[in-house]
Amino acid sequence: VVEMGQAEHAVITTCAYCGVGCGFKVEMKGQEVVRMVPWKDGKANRGHSCVKGRFAWGYATHKDRMLKPMIRKHISEPWREVSWDEAIQYAASEIRRIQAKHGRDAVGGITSSRCTNEETYLVQKLVRAAFGTNNVDTCARVCHSPTGYGLKTTIGESAGTQTFDSVMHTDVVILMGANPSAAHPVFASRLKRRLREGARLIVIDPRRIELVKTAHINAAYHLPVRPGANTALLTAMAHVIATEGLIDEAFVAERCETPAFEQWRDFVSLQENSPEAMEAETGVPAADLRGAARLYATGGNGSIYYGLGVTEHSQGSTTVMAIANLAMATGNIGKEGTGVNPLRGQNNVQGSCDMGSFPHELPGYRHISDPVVRGEFERDWGVTLQAEPGLRLPNMFDAAVSGSFKGLYCQGEDIVQSDPNTQHVAAALTAMECVIVQDIFLNETAKYAHVFLPGSSFLEKDGTFINAERRISRVRKVMEPMGGLADWEATCALSNALGYPMHYSHPSEIMDEIARLTPTFAGVSFRRIEELGGSVQWPCNDAAPEGTPIMHVGEFVRGKGRFMITKYVPSDERSTRKFPLLLTTGRILSQYNVGAQTRRTPNVVWHDEDMLEIHPHDAEDRGIRAGDMVAVQSRAGETVLRADVTDRVQPGVVYTTFHFPESGANVVTTDSTDWATDCPEYKVTAIQARRVTEP
Ligand code: SF4
What we know:
The protein is an alpha/beta fold and 695 residues long. A seven-stranded mixed β-sheet has the order 5-4-17-16-15-6-7, covered by helices on one side. Strands 21-25-22-24-23-26 form a six-stranded mixed barrel. A five-stranded parallel β-sheet has the order 10-9-8-11-12, sandwiched between helices.
């Protein structure tokens, strides 16, 4: 780190890692970054940061950056560097050739949750208007798509309901399937501060995460749920609340649909849903589960924060609805200090979903089949849109393997490393005739690409990100795009080459278009964001010109809240004689997602491999000692990981991270998915483990 005083000027921007969305002051000397300092006026972080964000310019200027467009006719051939114009023309001609031969819907696109809102908006517009298909999806498919389904169904909006600040008014926090100390560190710090003031914490997680220690200090609960049994556990908590007279009857009567509530109450009150009846499934002592349910219902303001340990299950959408049911039943939503909050993993997952990156939804979560909504976009964009939803990401892979899907434009997403069942993803990409990868590094997916377009980092572009509290924050350019074009400019160039004109002189014009077409963003512009101090929480429109810190005040977005039946269906991935252990996955503090950025940021590389956490009993049974290499085999595949023998995991459960491509965690995860959204069941994989070598 360079000493203070060397900087000549500074630019305020937003961290490009996790969904907290911390504001940073990037201090510059000429075109060189001197250092990044957490911005004291950043409303998401208030002057704090974690170690990842502070050193984020390291990857942005890394020697591995790919700065030249490249093409090749076949993936067995070497890359050939070409001009931007040649690469774009080649990509456009391949898209059109494929469509002429295999049909309009033989191509599609994937937006990035690391790119700006303006860029993701343009990619979905490119796919719908220039490709002429709704085959567009986003990496949220494999993380928070069940949040979209579950929250939209129950309360009407696919987003967290409160601000990060609001946790300071919470008395009881349920933290489920999330490990903010590692994945959302600045939020974890704020939560700990509130716990030190006396708030109580209920952790629902198969692992003894770092915050469990804090939970015990505050005499609350750690419910070590068996992977795959989340719905059973929450339904059992609802049973306690319903049968012990803990429902907030006045709230429910005023705010929720009565018939659905009564059906729900009858369902959860069944003895088969009691904590005692569910104990074998959940693995949680019934007394603890009853105590936690009573605490949440009676302990004052209650907030629920959850992560991918909720969504990435075959019942991910059901579990999200079970969370919303609990909040509605206890009146813990729609006021300060209460709410339901998905902790978003990547910096702009919320934004990529808001911007219409799903095959069935236009920007603002409006269904593509609605002729009125479609008409608004058709008039503005000057095209006729398809009324039928397109293919989801896993359906694109399946269609590619079966031969009907042939071309993909993938911006800022490494689907080979991040999606489950790597072998299937690789087979799908190999079967395609044209894969266009746009990224800052030659990632794992680029091994299967025919066109490579250099991506631009967050330091090289203007735009906005949206964090987990719906906060739209400005991203500001501190240096020119190292590859010559910002991502949004490359998308425009491709669209123009395809014959669909896209001309914007600045990303602010793209945001103006988004605002024109999206009611929840109607009051948003770059100027308005500046006037409001650098960020604003949507909805921001005539009804809420200053933005909306707390949602669902007085009335749910859908009108009346809707309770949903959450019948527990066991996962297909269960312990068997052949695969007796359940593998679950997560993150470590020093790495971010697939590690493409943090592995190239020397200041934060504290670990250089993914480890397999295994309980001492399970390790002893298999002759495994700390540091041994262990073969991990599932029905999908096999990989090898180094053992970390620890009681952070319970017997029968093993755990690893997915930050390093060499470890191949997703070689073993299967193609089991959420019933409603096809979100992969990363968090439950039945495996066997055997020692293969000493360290
Ligand atoms: Fe903040 Fe997350 Fe960036 Fe850390 S990684 S500085 S918590 S936005």
